Amino acid sequence: MTVGDAVKAKLVMDLRAQGIRDMRVLEALETTPRELFVSGPFVDQAYLDQSLPISCGQTISQPFIVAFMTEQLRLNERSKVLEIGTGSGYQAAVLSKLCRRVYTIERYRTLSIKAQKLFEKLALRNITTLVGDGYKGWPQQAPFDHIIVTAAAAEVPQALADQLSETGIMIIPVDEGRGHQALLKVERDGDGFKETKLMSVRFVPMVAGVAREKGVAREK
Ligand code: SAH
């Protein structure tokens, strides 16, 4: 066993101890090389259960949160999933192992391109990326069985709720005021929506519109 395997195994044990029970989710995290998704200076910390900085002032989510949100989505091999906030691409890579197809939207072109390269490198062929505004969702590809939002919104965006399939599930952090955020599960049942608060969380904010970046769009 290499050192890498040992730290990975420890992370998975920690996730189990924190209540993650779905073996498929644990296996998806164990087989996704998080060290490739974090920035250079933080590679040593890739298998600690913490969020870390990535480019464009954003963060890669904490493994526990990735595992918890993924578990709550209740994916199956036929699921079509929409992710808002590609970021490093780590969450999308984990999802891709548990469903048919992942559509992921990011407002920073730099991050989207970087993530796309990693998906190619890892031969994750069922992920489609888009540079766009996640508040609008992806109407051309809707409906989605599952929607996961990895940035905190002011409220549940109506466009995203409308793009859920009849029995769809959305997991989304929303602001509760005074710096608090709640992770919500939104379950659709025909025309109705049921909201359940799952836990308190801390995500970067969801920001409307595509990000304006200087001189990065042509990065190869
Ligand atoms: N899922 C990511 C987490 C990244 S942090 C990972 O696994 O690494 C959240 C991301 O959401 C940031 O990259 C941020 O730029 C993006 N984001 C924020 N508002 C957005 C919006 N309106 N549309 C698309 N992406 C958005």
Structural description of this entry:
- It is a single chain.
- The chain has a single domain (about 5-220), classed as Rossmann fold, CATH 3.40.50.
- The protein is globular.
- A hairpin with a 5-residue loop joins strand 1 and strand 2 (about 60).
- The protein contains 6 helices and 9 strands, in the order ααββαβαβαββαβββ.
- By secondary structure, the chain is α/β, with parallel strands linked by helices.
- The strands form 2 sheets. Strands 5-4-3-6-7-8-9 form a 7-stranded mixed β-sheet. Strands 1-2 form a two-stranded antiparallel ribbon.
- It has helices at about 5-15, 25-30, 65-75, 90-95, 110-120, 160, and strands at about 50-55, 60, 80-85, 100-105, 125-130, 145-150, 165-175, 180-190, 190-200.
- Helix 1 (about 5-15) packs antiparallel against helix 2.
- The longest helix has 15 residues, at about 5-15.
- The structure holds S-adenosyl-L-homocysteine.
- S-adenosyl-L-homocysteine binds near residues 90 and 206.
What tags apply to this protein structure?
220 residues, alpha/beta, Rossmann fold, two-stranded antiparallel sheet, globular
Give a short overview.
With 220 residues, the chain is an alpha/beta fold.
